[in-house]
Amino acid sequence: MAVDVEERPAAPPSAEAPARPQPFRPSILGWILRLVVWAGVAWVVLVFPLGREAFEVQQYAQAVIYGIIGLSLNVLLGYVGQISLGHQAFVGIGAFTAAYAVSEQGQSVWVAVAVAAAVGGLQALILGGASLRITGLYFALVTLAYGLVAERNIFQIEELTGGGQGQPAPKPNGFESDWRYYYLCLAFLAVIMWIDWRMMRTKSGRAMLALRENPRVASTFGVNVKLLQLFAFVVSGAFAGVGGALLAFNDTFVSPETWDFNLALIFVIMTVVGGLRSRVGVVIGSAFFALIGYLLDKFTFIQDGLNAIPGAPDLTPEIAPLVIGPILLLLTLVFFPGGIGQQIRPIQRWLGGKRFDLKDRGLKEVQISDVRA
């Protein structure tokens, strides 16, 4: 018995899948240009200081150390979105701890730096544990209060700080010259940047970025919000302790008058202007603020031009960061939310072998869906 079968039109031949775009690969000339730029950067960082005077090299070392301090604040402000208005306390206690360990206890500089990092992390652990349920503006006020307590009480303990006489902090053996110490600071900066990079490649690092955008959403991915905030605070304090120790040995002397709220404000401004979540941007911004006074003193025509502006205050090297900083901060928040890091991103990607795209400024917001927790 025959069964009628409905005839269906034959399916059209499948179209060929569109070819995948080939990844961009620089030409030989492109790689040569990139190598030339890399060589220029290496020359500025490694070779240029060799021909400068000792005082200038000391300023360059301070710029490198400020880069470490900026990275420490970026962990807290850039990654988890918590602002610290008392960061000078962590840096200052690290400086005094390192100076005390070397001058009073006779420890080596390497032990002193390790102790300063441990003390920085410990005080962050205690302060963060006490204020674990506080976030946002209230957390900033807690850190502000801690900075004032450190400034008016902890830094006045004569056994630790030497009181008004301060505490000597000699440079490490083998690094007594300013040039050698500069390279030592560069090595510490490289280690801190590597640790920061490795940390953000982990699941906890990606969770911190989600935590910054929306803690409630991050918690739905299984993120322990309070514990992660405390972890970031401890890492930030440890980095700040290392920066404080290096700053003490760079100056070879630590004075209680140095660590005031103005310094804490500069730390926050240089981190935001550098670009939150951009390591290179934060280092560049921090180095700039460390060198503002030196640049005005070196190139007097800049200072003369700024002082010629009607109504502008006399811009001395001491108050220059507090005058220029807020202006740069306002411009950053209005026009360049990503700071210096946003502006140099096309160059960074080009140096890494990518196509140069002037419009590539990165994501404005962290994507929560990128987190796997």
Summarize the model shown.
This protein has helices spanning 28-47, 54-79, 87-103, 109-130, 136-152, 158-161, 178-200, 203-213, 215-220, 225-251, 261-274, 279-298, 300-307, 320-335, 339-351, and strands at residues 167-168, 253-254. It has 373 residues and is mainly α.
List its traits:
373 residues; mainly alpha; two-stranded antiparallel sheet; 15 helices; 2 strands; 65% helix; globular; disordered C terminus
Counted by DSSP, the helix tally is: 15
Largest sheet: 2 strands, antiparallel
- Please give the order of strands in the largest beta sheet: 1-2
Please state the structural category: mainly alpha
* Terminal CA distance: 64 Å
Q: Work out the helicity level.
A: 55-70%
Q: What is the 3D shape? A: globular
The number of strands is 2
How much of the sequence lies in strands comes to under 5%
Low-confidence stretches: 1-6, 365-373
On the 0-100 scale, what is the average pLDDT? 84
Which sequence of SSEs, written as H and E, runs from N to C?
HHHHHHEHHHHEHHHHH
* Cα gyration radius (Å): 25 Å
